[in-house]
Amino acid sequence: MEKETFYITTAIDYVNGLPHIGHAYEKIASDVIARHFKQRGKDVFFLTGSDEHGIKIQKTAQDLGISPKEHCDKTSSEFKKAWKKADIDYNRYIRTTDTDHEKLVQWAFEELLKRGDIYKSSYTGLYCNGCEAFLSPRELDENGFCPIHKKKPQEVKEENYFFKLSKYKDAIAEHIKKNPKFILPKSRENEILNQLKDIEDISVSRSKNSVNWSIDVLSDSNQGIYVWIDALSNYITGVGFLEDKEKFMKYWPCDVHVIGKDILKFHSIYWIGFLMALGIELPKTIFAHGWITIDETKMSKSLGNVISIDTLMENFNLENADPIRYFLLTTASFGKDGNYSDEDFKSKVNADLANNLGNLLNRTLSMLVKYFDGKISFSGNSYIDKELLALCQNTVREVERKFDYYEITEAIEAIIHLVDITNKYVNDRAPWTLAKTDLQACEKVLYNVLEVMKYTSILLYPVIPNISQKIYNQLGFNGQIKDIQLKDLENLNLKIGQIATKESIKPVFLRLDSEIAQDKKKK
After folding, report:
1. Is residue 23 annotated as part of the catalytic site, yes or no?
2. Is pLDDT above 80 for 131?
């Protein structure tokens, strides 16, 4: 039987800096997926959070003259504020300093030790502080630098505990090959299979002399549990693996881990090895998205090109984050790298949200007011344009198919295509001309456009929840659009009677840099 629940996670952000739109991209995409599956009647659990241990946080806190926990408390609260502004509707924000998580990490470490999958050994290796990982010489670029952080790793010699990852490499490879949806986009699968060929056992602890801001190894007071068992285990802590077995059984296995492409190896190899060793069922899909660059340059504090949700909302005087959500998810296919520039942002959201979507609703309701006093006097199949209705129903199915593979951008494109065709439908039938010769035909055209807007508002709700709610209300519906499921669409009828007045028709999205928007900014 198909699972009635849907469990989605994001990567947990390392709270050594403030949130920016690169972080937001992943959280917004995951929020859109979560909202879509709620529309399909799923009981959704959406987990996000912060990664709060490690040497970088320890050093930053020392420099600031505060404790690592104080630093984490302050920074994680900034992430929570940012996600509230971006309308991220998560079920739990997990912190790796949470008591239930620390307890689970210690249990997992001791369990793996007991099973013989963790052993102690002296090791000399190349350690990248940015990755918080040991790298093999094969993983470095031609200059001997970490390919991601462009810095030379330090040679570190320590006695640490190691996880027998090499023991599981064949089983991991077999699982990937047998499960075509396990790594998405599919194009990333070979990358992981190639990395698996050279995989070695990995360090899962650090000496307390090197890193003291970590979760203690219960059976060895000189060692702290190293980042990957700590960070990755949040996905089972979040749904109550130790604390609430009933909840865990309800939501696990995870339907999709949404992560950045730079940490795909840790999720599709390390995490899977840990789960296999612990005898825990594997997640269904790991989806690796690309990065958001700024004017074709990777975001970097040193370059000073880091942009936050706050900055964009303030600079463009946005009343909510809908335009940002829309742009980030349409600038490039989800899974590939996207780019942000002010001009692209203005151009895209003005074209799609103001000119295309907003104007279609505005001019249709305006004609309804002008020719019919804002009233709908009919409802039912006799007025439905069967071709347009079939296109709406096909769009619903197409959107569902795209979301089954987390192809968010393509799903949005399918909805906007429906809007494009409807704009052409209006232009071809010219209801303003029909109003002079055949009022009933004019009324029928307007009715069908409003039917399309009903479908469009609900399909776009996961992406632009605030704008969709405005459209929904302007169509005469009461209540919350979030409560409408996709299966309800065909039986959700426009109400007969007054749905619009001249005063009630307002733009659902003000063009950026428009006169109205500028006047609003001045006020």
Report:
1. yes
2. no
As a whole number, mean pLDDT of residues 481-486 equals 97
List the structure tokens of 369: 């007011």
Please indicate whether residue 20 is annotated as part of the active site.
yes
Spot the catalytic one: 177, 186, 301, 424: 301
CA distance 16 to 302: 14
Q: Averaged over 463-468, what is the pLDDT? A: 98
327 within 8 A of 345, measured Cβ to Cβ: yes
* Tens-digit pLDDT profile for residues 351-378: 999 999 999 999 999 999 999 999 998 7
Lookup result for tokens 């946005």: 318
pTM of the predicted structure, to 2 decimals: 0.93
Q: Which of 426, 66, 114 is nearest to 106 (CA)?
A: 114
237 contacts: CB under 8 Å, gap ≥ 6: 94, 98, 100, 101, 104, 105
Q: Catalytic annotation on 254?
A: no
Which entry of 53, 72, 85, 146 is annotated as an active-site residue? 146
Catalytic annotation on 128? yes
146 labelled catalytic? yes
Question: In 3D, which of 75, 101, 71 has the Cα closest to residue 13?
Answer: 75
Q: What b/e readout covers 464-474, taking b as 16+ CB neighbours within 10 angstroms?
A: bbbbbbbbbbb
Residue 53 known to be catalytic: no
Q: Which of 81, 245, 298, 506 is catalytic?
A: 298
